[in-house]
Write a sequence for this structure.
């Protein structure tokens, strides 16, 4: 399975390595043509405003929107989740967005960089022990639409959700050696 990782900014290498561990043909993608040939796509964590502006500058917003409309799986982690959201809290109102998933998110909901943390999560659809989740300046999902399934919460806040073949995570599964989230994502096709 050819899986692209949007490679304009963020945790690209880490996602590529996680995908390779689960046997995916993982490639960094930077152009509309590279996105079009992927069977699944990941929007990595990083800085959502920067990623959104670079996507806009390089003409990638519409190709990713078209990718989602074609029914192919899309995973957004942290900043990627923010870019997927139909609504972003006041701090992100002026940033470019894909607006493809019926969620409302709040950026940096757990605090600044110094407030980053790890936690064990039970994620619906993932068998075995809890997932170790790494939260770095993480957003949360404040509201979900009727088609969105909540997969995990941390301290009452929604931190993982799925809508059709879209998966949005507040945390960074690529920063641990546990590949179950990436395996789950690949099973969504």
């Amino acid at each position: 399975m050819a899986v692209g990782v949007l490679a304009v900014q963020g945790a690209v290498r880490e996602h590529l390595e996680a995908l390779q561990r689960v046997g995916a043909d993982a490639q960094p993608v930077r152009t509309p043509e590279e996105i079009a040939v992927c069977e699944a796509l990941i929007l990595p964590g990083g800085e959502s405003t920067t990623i959104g502006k670079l996507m806009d500058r390089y003409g990638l917003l519409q190709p990713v929107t078209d990718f989602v409309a074609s029914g192919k799986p899309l995973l957004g982690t942290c900043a990627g989740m923010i870019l997927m959201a139909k609504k972003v809290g006041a701090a992100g109102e002026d940033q470019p967005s894909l607006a493809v998933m019926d969620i409302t998110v709040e950026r940096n909901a757990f605090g600044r960089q110094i407030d980053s943390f790890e936690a064990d999560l039970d994620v619906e659809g993932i068998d075995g022990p809890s997932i170790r989740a790494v939260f770095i300046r993480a957003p949360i999902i404040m509201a979900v639409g009727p088609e969105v399934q909540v997969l995990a919460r941390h301290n009452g806040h929604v931190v993982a959700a799925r809508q059709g073949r879209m998966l949005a995570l507040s945390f960074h599964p690529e920063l641990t050696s546990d590949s179950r989230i990436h395996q789950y994502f690949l099973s969504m096709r």
Notes: The helical segments are 12-21, 32-36, 48-57, 61-69, 79-84, 180-186.
